[in-house]
């Protein structure tokens, strides 16, 4: 457990607020290597989430009813913001991995020593999407769900999304930084402000109530601010920390059980730190 503690301590450095890393190959392979199969993994999930984001729009009648004028309110819900972010992240993952697979042999061979801008952007986007997906699932089942019938879209956007996130954290080589909690926190703050401005503009939800969610009823500003603050500044960092813990455990297991790792991949794991 000393290695795990060391990795955790190393995360609390000022540089870890940023998006620097000295081993770009970690971002385009599984934790135990195998780059070609990793490309298949990325493309599959990009197609999967793209298909489901389309379904959430096509089946808007499941939450909006027959009134098609309400369908455009898809864009006001945190669930859809989070799932759209996750979809964009998986598409970016697939595009970046494909580009590096065919055009950046230096990264594939471990010869590159710094992250190009597109890997930095992908890292930021993926970190944000992972955390807000888990936060959205927790908020939905804890604050929104009222015992109504659960649809396939509900399961996909509030269960399978988080299962994917945990699975992705467990098997891929992309690092997680504990001090990157501010990415998803900024996302949560942005949505909180959006819900306030939407209310001030006279916006309503699909049931014509003057709020998006009951917990974000800005006619009761004290309650709305409390919910926003707890979810954004408490729940979000905690869940980010849990994902970071899963990542640390994954790295520890990879180092302890090196029988599954070839020489170059093992060296990659040892380099799993900032430059």
List the helices and strands and how they pair.
Blueprint (H helix, E strand, L loop, with lengths): L1 H9 L24 H24 L2 H4 L13 H26 L1 H4 L8 H28 L7 H20 L10 H19 L20 H36 L6 H8 L5
Shape: globular
Distance between the termini: 23 Å
Q: How many DSSP H or I helices? A: 10
- Rounded Rg: 20 Å
Task: Please tell me about this protein's structure.
The protein has 275 residues and is mostly helical. The chain has one domain. The chain is built from 10 helices and no strands. Helix 2 packs antiparallel against helix 4 and helix 6 crosses helix 7. The radius of gyration is 20 Å and the shape is globular.
Features:
single chain; about 280 residues; mainly alpha; about 0% strand; Protein rolling stone
Question: Concise description?
Answer:
This is Protein rolling stone. This protein starts with a helix and ends in a 5-residue tail after the last helix. It contains ten helices and no strands.
